[in-house]
Amino acid sequence: MSASGSIGIVSVQRATFDTPLIFRSGTVLPRYELAYETYGTLNADRSNAILVCHALSGNHHVAGFYADDPKNIGWWDNMVGPGKPIDTDRFFVIGVNSLGGCHGSTGPSSIDPLTGKPYGASFPVVTVEDWVESQARLADLLGIKKFAAVMGGSLGGMQAMQWSLSYPDQVSHVLAIAAAPHLTAENIAFNDVARNAILSDPDFHGGNFYQYGVVPTRGLRLARMLGHITYLSDDAMADKFGRSLRTGELGFTYDIEFEIESYLRYQGDKFAAYFDANTYLLMTKALDYFDPAREFNGNLDKAFAAARADYLVVSFTTDWRFSPGRSREIVQSLLHNRLNVSYAEISSTHGHDSFLMQQEHYHDVMRTYLDRIASEVSV
Amino acid sequence: MSAHDPAELAAARPDFAAIAEWIPQGASVLDLGCGDGSLLRFLRDTRKVRGYGVEISDANIVTCIRNNVNVVQGDLDSGLSGFESQSFDYVILSQTLQAIRHTEALVQEILRVGREGIVSFPNFGYWKNRVNILRGNMPVSRELPYQWYDTPNVHLCTLHDFETFCNNRHVAVLDRRVMTGKNEVKLLPNLLGSTAVYRFQRGI
């Protein structure tokens, strides 16, 4: 089946929470806002809600486009919409900008009401657990007692898993796509280099660059370039760029010569123009800290003992940042706890970014699993 | 009747019915090479098992999900390292043994992961197969539907071969059912039976 239409024009909603949120770090945020979008209709018994959690650079704009900005299409528009695998004719889909983000939810670039200045470096280090807590309050506000599904790719998949651990009775299905039970040392190393690029940019000013009227563009750009390499695969890069030179000739300079250099710099510039450096630091730290097994002496089986949800785990063959082996670790612990789980290892050339791609078999797996969820809720 | 009606399936796949008879209510089952999940679905409907399948084919993964059967995508020839020792009551290999490359290693893995193993396979010693060979051709039949050049079957065996294998590998056969179509075969099973199902455990 081919993908159907777009959900069309969507708009951002905002919710303000006045109950202080105590972060895992112990820091308290007395008040915060979450930016979110919803698609589809919540059914009478409020059982058809799906929460889509975003990855490092994503946001609440999951599908559709804005009336005043029709080119700004949601990051998972190929997956979410009428007749699409996450069918908005059947499900009530919620996208929320993670706390600490830079697209409308309270984050480092927001004004701290206590000081009248941006939070900057004083914004608390956020963890996946804190996000789930903030999302649970949004669910309360929307009157959703139990999600039909919580899902996401990469860091979004980690949030989906955490939902089943923090609120086991409030989520029926978890779809953890291109996720991992924790980052490896190599993965943390990549994040640290990215953070160092930002932290060492003279324009960073210890995180308080807003008041200096500058942006640590160079650091953010390098961080994104590095990250981007790790989201692709060797094969995908070879296919797309190979060793192609922009002019066809060696220039014997350090200017942009190879197409891959041009592409990476373009991606870096584009990202640095809209993304907040402090948010980037927070997101990478949340990735590094996620490790539900930690409080069980590294035993993931014990960590998942709390979970009740049915799981769909999906990985991609060329994803080396969150490799299939990491997904199999999740599956193994779910099996240990005798939870319902299905696991699909999708052949794809696009590396970690595969979870964003419109690939037929991947979408078949998603559509079939979501059909099953739909059959359990009155749509 | 739907294609998944238990009575219809039992009639179409007598080996399913034979396997189900051995499995107590509520047992945990791992079905290796579970295909479209029919056996697991049958065992869930008739025995209320807690079941999981392992399957390599993309198309079958989707069908298993559609059939509401737990399925883990993986290659049996890479072993069962993702499964804990003694974590299932029964590990089943239904009509797949003959297509496994590392047969010996997989049988050992079955007995590591499961308390008991169940395998079913087409009996190459069945008289019709022997007649085919005598006539000078590789057998092609309902149980062995492939031509020699497109068959996934790399390790065909007779009942006698399998029992010798078990005997030499400290695998204790607990039970055996031999069938031709729907009928159980008691007389000269290695000659008159087209399909065999064995239940076994680790021997001493």
What does this structure look like?
The complex is a heterodimer of chains A (379) and B (204). By secondary structure, chain A is of the alpha/beta class. In chain A, 33% of the residues lie in helices and 16% in strands. In chain A, the strands form four sheets. An eight-stranded mixed sheet of chain A has the order 1-4-8-5-11-12-13-14, sandwiched between helices. The longest helix of chain A is centred in the last third of the chain and has 17 residues, at 360-376. The two termini of chain A are 21 Å apart. With 204 residues, chain B is an alpha/beta fold. Chain B is 34% helix and 25% strand. Chain B has helices at 6-12, 14-22, 38-47, 58-66, 103-113, 127-135, 159-168, 189-192, and strands at 28-32, 50-55, 71-73, 88-94, 114-122, 171-180, 183-184, 195-202. Chain B has an eight-stranded mixed sheet, with helices on both faces. In chain B, helix 5 links the parallel strand 4 (88-94) and strand 5 (114-122). In chain B, helix 1 packs across helix 2 (14-22). The interface between A and B is medium-sized, with 22 and 19 residues.
Could you write a compact summary of the structure shown?
The complex is a heterodimer of chains A (379) and B (204). By secondary structure, chain A is α/β, with parallel strands linked by helices.
Key structural traits:
heterodimer, A: 379 residues, alpha/beta, 8-stranded mixed β-sheet, two-stranded antiparallel ribbon, 33% helix, globular, B: 204 residues, 8 strands, 34% helix
Order of helices and strands of chain A: EEEEEEEEEEHEHEHHHHHHEHEH
Computed over alpha carbons, the radius of gyration of chain A is 20 Å
Please provide the count of β strands of chain A.
14
N-to-C CA distance of chain B: 46 Å
Question: Which term fits the overall shape of chain B?
Answer: globular
Number of distinct beta strands of chain B = 8
Strand content of chain B: 15-25%
Work out the strand percent of chain A: 15-25%
Q: Which sequence of SSEs, written as H and E, runs from N to C of chain B? A: HHEHEHEEHEHHEEHE
